[in-house]
Design a protein that fits this description.
By secondary structure, this protein is an all-alpha fold. 74% of the residues lie in helices and 0% in strands.
Length: 152
C-alpha cells in the first residue's frame, strides 16, 4: 500500500505524486471491498448503534446498510489521518535534511571566503614584492648608467 521512502528525500512534486497514488490505491481497495462485501445480514453492526424497538425489517436493513457505509467512510478517514501523519514525518525528514544541507552550504561559503582572503593577501604581497623589485632595479639601473664622479 505505502511505499517506503526511508533514506530518500522527497521533493514537493514527489510527495504530491505519492499522495495521489495512495489516494487512488485507497479508492480501488474501497471499491474491491464493496464488490466483495458479504451480504448485509452477515456483517455485524458498529457498537455505537442498536435497533430501536418496533422498527420494521426494511427499516432495520436500511439503517444497517447506511451505518455500515458511514463506518467504512469513518475508517477510511482514520486511515487518511495515519497517511497524513506519515507525510508529516516525511516533511520533518525533508526539513532536517534541508537544514543540514544549508549548514553545509554555509560552511562551504565560509571556506570559500577564507580562501578568497588568503589569495587576496597573497596577490597583494606579490604586488608589494614586485614593486620593491622594480624600485631596486630602477635604482641599480640609474646607478650603473650615471657617470662616475671624480673625487676631489
Amino acid at each position: 500500500m505505502v511505499q517506503s521512502t526511508a533514506g530518500r528525500v522527497l521533493n514537493g512534486a514527489d510527495l504530491e505524486r505519492q499522495i495521489e497514488a495512495d489516494v487512488r490505491n485507497r479508492a480501488s481497495i474501497r471499491e474491491a471491498r464493496h464488490a466483495s462485501a458479504a451480504p448485509a445480514s452477515t456483517l455485524s453492526m458498529p457498537h455505537y448503534v442498536q435497533h430501536c424497538e418496533g422498527a420494521t425489517e426494511i427499516g432495520k436493513l436500511s439503517a444497517e446498510a447506511v451505518v455500515r457505509e458511514y463506518e467504512a467512510a469513518a475508517k477510511d478517514i482514520e486511515a487518511m489521518g495515519a497517511e497524513l501523519i506519515e507525510r508529516a514525518k516525511q516533511c520533518e525528514t525533508m526539513t532536517r535534511d534541508a537544514l543540514a544541507a544549508t549548514k553545509e552550504m554555509k560552511e562551504t561559503a565560509a571556506r570559500y571566503r577564507e580562501q578568497a582572503k588568503r589569495i587576496f593577501i597573497h596577490i597583494e604581497e606579490c604586488s608589494l614584492i614586485t614593486a620593491e623589485v622594480r624600485k631596486t632595479c630602477t635604482a641599480l639601473k640609474e646607478g650603473i648608467a650615471a657617470p662616475p664622479t671624480v673625487p676631489a
